[in-house]
Design brief:
Blueprint: E1 2-11, E2 14-20, E3 25-30, H1 36-48, E4 67-75, E5 81-88, E6 91-96, H2 105-110, E7 113-116, H3 122-125, H4 128-142, H5 146-165, H6 170-174, H7 177-209, E8 215-220, H8 229-235, H9 237-243, E9 254-259, E10 262-263, H10 264-267, H11 270-292, E11 297-300, H12 309-322, E12 326-330, H13 335-338, E13 343-348, E14 351-355
Parallel strand pairs: 3-12, 3-13, 7-11, 11-12
Antiparallel strand pairs: 1-2, 1-4, 4-5, 5-6, 8-9, 9-10, 13-14
Helix pairs in contact: 4-7, 4-11, 5-7, 7-11, 11-12
Bound molecules: adenosine-5'-triphosphate (ATP) and magnesium ion (MG).
């Protein structure tokens, strides 16, 4: 499983680039501003239908052109599946095996990718939304019924919030509660079940990455547990009406990450933060493989930054254990990276050359 080849047209600094990847370990080197992250970004886009750099994909269109195309083939159990993305006239179109997918979520099903970059710290330092995103990536990939429930919950929540904002009477608002509770409790149960399955690998790997410190992950459902969601919703109605939005529910859930019993952000150094988050993301990749039987593709942008040689080697050993196709970028890769490479590419002045 992985990306067999990739063609870019007018994507960021690249006018035209065509690459064939190894199924194992691919290295992309180049100086600052040569296009390494752009290459990783294009692969991420194929798997997620969005960028990790910008919410506005117009900025990814090569300056002076009208749109970009990204095309590649993803290996599957049987025949390779072509995936194409094109941004023209201000919107993104996707094709999977020649068909337009019903939602961009189908890209994730076809080509699951996991990213570790210098923004990975956000999972610790960012707001709870980042940690919910982290959990939901995992649940989405192992639980096929999660996405429809998640979508239904979002839809009902939007309806309820509109009524709250418009100051509608309470009975009208509460008429949405039964559906909100039913979808919300299901969503919370999916997340908790997933976290329980992730926990053994995630805590063991994260602890080892931090030299044996004790790590814990704990799910808070978005309502006081002793009340339960239905009562919490009833009790919050006046606050909801005042705020013009629903204050309790899985959209307010949190995943607490603790190191030696303390919130991780208060306890670990910058490098440890990256090692911790990296271990959690790799644990997700390993659990995904164990539960689906398919590996996901790992994108490691500028991995060596902030890592000393010991942390980097331990991390790369874990990467190998995941058995996933890997794309790693580096300005000046140390031997712990080069010794594992199956295929290497060098980016210079927007041209990509395969190294032999
Ligand atoms: N829409 C665009 N059109 C043309 N060039 C762009 C566009 N967006 C970004 N660039 C340029 O692409 C180049 C490559 O950027 P990228 O972030 O991929 O570099 P990098 O190799 O990852 O650099 P670093 O080592 O500093 O992280 C930069 O010079 C950037 O200014
Ligand atoms: Mg970069």
């Amino acid at each position: 499983m992985g990306l067999l080849n990739l063609s870019l047209r007018n994507f960021r600094c690249f006018t035209a680039a065509d690459l064939e990847f190894a199924p194992t370990f691919n290295l992309i080197t180049g100086e600052n501003a040569s296009g390494k992250t752009s290459l990783i970004e294009s692969i991420f886009l194929m798997g997620r239908g969005r960028s990790f750099r910008t919410a506005n994909l117009e900025s990814a269109v090569r300056a002076g052109t009208n749109g970009f195309q990204i095309v590649g083939r993803v290996s599957s159990q049987s025949t390779p599946i072509p995936i194409g993305l094109a941004r023209e006239n201000g919107h993104l179109e996707a094709r999977i095996a020649g068909q337009t997918p019903a939602t961009l979520a189908q890209l994730s099903e076809t080509f699951p990718v996991q990213l570790v970059d210098n923004q990975a710290h956000e999972i610790i330092r960012g707001n709870p939304h980042r940690r919910r995103q982290f959990l939901d990536w995992g649940v989405f990939h192992v639980e096929p019924t999660f996405f429809p429930v998640w979508r239904r919950y979002q839809r009902v929540l939007r309806q309820r919030n509109t009524l709250l904002r418009n100051g509608n009477p309470q009975p009208e608002i509460s008429s949405w509660d039964r559906e909100l509770v039913s979808q919300g409790e299901a969503l919370g149960a999916f997340r908790q079940e997933y976290l329980a399955s992730l926990l053994p690998t995630a805590t063991a790997w994260a602890s080892q990455a931090l030299g044996g410190l004790e790590i814990s992950l704990e799910y808070r459902p978005g309502w006081p547990r002793e009340q339960g969601f239905p009562d919490a919703l009833k009790n919050a109605i006046e606050r909801d009406r005042y705020a013009g939005m629903t204050q309790v529910g899985p959209h307010r859930a949190e995943m607490l990450i603790k190191v030696e019993g303390k919130p991780a952000q208060e306890r670990v150094s910058r490098g440890q933060e990256k090692a911790l988050v990296g271990a959690l993301l790799l644990a997700q990749a390993a659990v995904y493989r164990a539960r689906s039987g398919r590996p996901c593709t790992l994108l490691l942008d500028d991995l060596a930054a902030e890592f000393d040689s010991g942390h980097l080697t331990r991390f790369l050993d874990r990467v190998e254990e995941c058995g996933a196709q890997t794309h790693i970028t580096a300005i000046d890769p140390p031997s712990s990276i080069t010794s594992r490479v199956a295929k290497a590419f060098h980016v210079k002045q927007d041209k990509i050359t395969e190294m032999v």
